[in-house]
Design goal:
Length: 661
């Protein structure tokens, strides 16, 4: 991953009633800005103000305020976020830096509760954290759409290849037909000449000859009509056969689809609603716990003078005595409880705060589990909707095909009846014509000559044959022209298929690429940071991509997972693999931060937002904090980090410091 180039920027942040802040303004330049101070001195609140102005979703309104805002001036642009209390909720408005804060919330705002950072601490699904901003469902839908289009193009190209192979035989067939047509026309002309000669030699039997000619003409019309009916019958049978095959395929597809009565979408919707309400309830508990912990920390450090004044004893003799001294006795391990006024062990309050933090962590894990269940149910709901749509499509097409089959069967019956009717009429006409011809022959001296009826029969047969040949020639010519026209699109189709292959390759490898780059980035930076921080008993912390089978809705799919490995060495130089739960708090925090940095670099968050925020680094010693902060500096324009005074002292004096908020 490339290190971000350093470009000088200036910024100013104004905040009012954010977190525990009444009102403040700070100015900073690009690079490292250290928020130095004890706990409960609004350092985290200031980070919340930054997040609010940048568009993050974690800012909170001061408990005793109805409205608040955060305003960030950056590169001659001003970005704002307002917060307003409405009943039991806080409504946000304004025009912050980011329209969509997801990437920044996941990988740039690396506070203690950050999901990427916590994923290592709580042993969550690391792959899910990395892929959370990626709409995998949309990718799968696009892959499915492009695959269908590619298959259609491939089928069309296969058809064109087949047609291309057929072209020489069709051209030969056209040549043969043209020759046969020419021969038939010559033969027909000869027969017509014989008919004219026979008619010219007719004598006084003109009246009978006219009647015979009329019968022969009517016979020709009936035979022509019969030929048309036979052609229509052949066409209808072919169409009917194709429709019946399609109906069989549709019925088979319908049989393979899950039964609709097994797809209870309302039940899934209800479960999603229930889990979402449960998640929202947990969010409320988490928010309350955060406020309680923050309040008690501030009280423990003595940062609420107004409240302390209310709790002060009425009989305090010296009003000059500092309020803090009334509540906190530095020489003893007791404090005055701000709920009952009695003296209690400081350690007891600290233990209570620790338990509250642990409970908050538990609730955060519960919420993450609920979100995972909700996402799984949403996937199941999408499958239900897709199955219902397939049912509707198949049912509609099956109804349409069934109706068309019935119509064509009726048409086939009508054509069959018409064929039989014409055949009967032709038989009758041939009988009548034969009788008329026999009468004419009685008056004819030359019995060796071919009769006029026979000549007309031959002429009819030749005309039928000629008509069929001409229709065959027309069909063959149309086929050749269709092939030649279709082949004109072959190059364009091949180009489009190549484009789709490239698009599919990119889509199919996008998730793989993100996973691979995330793992490579984490492993690379983890190796570098471990070397910089000099953890002597850790040889390596690295992520391995492994395959596993997971359930998505009703089906099982193959998916990759991220396995975190810890390799340690003993005093004698041998190595062994350790488990995550054996990492020290310091090692866990560093691992979580580097995992967040990997996501930051893989998703190129530095292109979206020029800030990275850090806090809660107390688990590391001062020198390691300084080395880690300096390591992170090279990847962002602004790095704002909240530190205790003794930890801030380990950083170079050239870095900006904010000590009063």
């Amino acid at each position: 991953m490339a290190t971000q180039e350093s470009v000088a920027h200036e910024a100013r942040l104004r905040a009012q009633n954010i977190g525990g802040i009444d009102e403040t303004t700070i100015e900073l330049e690009s690079g490292i800005t250290v928020l130095a101070g004890r706990n409960a001195t609004n350092r985290t609140s200031l980070l919340q103000a930054f997040m609010a102005a940048l568009g993050g979703s974690s800012a909170s309104l001061k408990a005793d305020a109805e409205e608040g805002y955060a305003e960030l001036e950056l590169d001659d642009q001003t970005y704002t976020r307002t917060l307003k209390r409405t009943g039991n909720t806080v409504v946000t408005d304004g025009e912050p830096y980011l329209d969509d804060p997801e990437l920044a919330d996941l990988y740039a705002f690396l506070l203690e509760s950050n999901p990427a950072r916590r994923a290592v601490t709580t042993e969550d699904d690391l792959r899910e954290i990395i892929l959370r901003p990626v709409d995998t469902d949309e990718i799968e839908r696009e892959i499915s759409r492009l695959t269908d289009e590619k298959n259609e193009i491939s089928n069309e190209l296969d058809r064109l290849d087949s047609l291309k192979n057929d072209l020489p035989s069709l051209e030969q067939q056209r040549t043969d037909l043209e020759g046969k047509i020419e021969d038939k026309r010559d033969e027909l002309e000869a027969v017509k000449a014989a008919i004219e000669e026979a008619e010219a030699n007719a004598d006084t039997q003109q009246e009978g000859q006219d009647e015979l000619e009329e019968k022969l003409s009517e016979l020709r019309e009936r035979r022509s009509a019969l030929e048309d009916v036979r052609f229509d019958l052949e066409t209808e049978r072919e169409s009917l056969s194709a429709l019946r095959e399609e109906r069989d395929d549709l019925e088979a597809e319908q049989e393979d689809l899950p039964a609709l009565d097994s797809l209870d979408r309302e039940e899934v919707d209800a479960e999603i609603d229930r889990l979402q309400r449960q998640s929202q309830s947990i969010d409320g508990v988490i928010s309350q716990l955060q406020s309680i912990v923050q309040f008690n920390e501030e009280m423990l450090e003595g940062s609420h003078p107004e409240i302390r004044q209310l709790l002060a004893d009425d009989d305090i003799e010296s009003t000059d005595q500092a309020i803090t001294d009334q509540l906190v006795d530095d020489g003893a391990e007791t404090v005055r409880c701000w709920t009952c006024g009695s003296q209690v062990q400081r350690s007891e309050i600290e233990e209570t705060i620790d338990r509250l933090r642990e409970h908050q962590e538990t609730k955060l894990s519960e919420r993450d589990d609920l979100e995972s269940q909700i996402e799984s149910l949403r996937s199941e709901r999408r499958e239900i909707d897709q199955t219902r749509q397939r049912h509707e499509r198949v049912d509609r097409r099956l109804d349409s095909v069934t109706d068309e089959i019935e119509q064509r069967e009726t048409r086939l019956d009508d054509l069959t009846d018409r064929r039989e009717e014409l055949e009967s009429e032709i038989d009758d006409l041939e009988t009548e014509a034969a009788e008329l011809e026999a009468e004419a022959d009685d008056d004819t001296e030359d019995d060796d000559e071919e009769s006029l009826l026979e000549l007309n029969r031959r002429a009819n047969e030749l005309e039928f044959s000629l008509g069929r040949l001409e229709r065959d020639l027309e069909t063959t010519t149309d086929d050749i022209e269709d092939i030649e026209s279709a082949l004109e699109d072959e190059t364009q189709l091949e180009q489009r298929r190549d484009e789709i292959r490239d698009e599919l390759e990119e889509l199919r490898t996008r998730i793989d690429r993100i996973e691979r780059e995330a793992v490579e980035s984490f492993n690379e930076h983890m190796d570098a940071v471990l070397e910089v921080l000099e953890y002597q008993n850790i040889d390596r912390i690295w992520i391995e991509r492994v395959g596993k089978t997971v359930r998505e809705g009703r089906r099982k799919v193959e998916q990759t997972a991220f396995d975190l490995h810890i390799v340690r060495s003993t005093a004698d130089g041998s190595t062994y693999e350790d488990t995550i739960d054996h990492l020290s708090e310091s090692e866990r925090e560093v691992t979580g931060l580097i995992f967040g940095l990997a996501g930051y670099l893989v998703h190129e968050v530095y292109e979206e937002v020029p800030f990275m925020l850090l806090d809660s680094l107390e688990a590391l010693d001062s020198n390691r904090i300084a080395a880690l902060v300096e390591y992170f500096e090279s990847h962002t324009d602004f790095l704002v980090v909240a530190l205790l005074p003794e930890d801030a002292a380990a950083l170079d004096d050239e870095y900006d410091r904010v000590t009063e908020i």
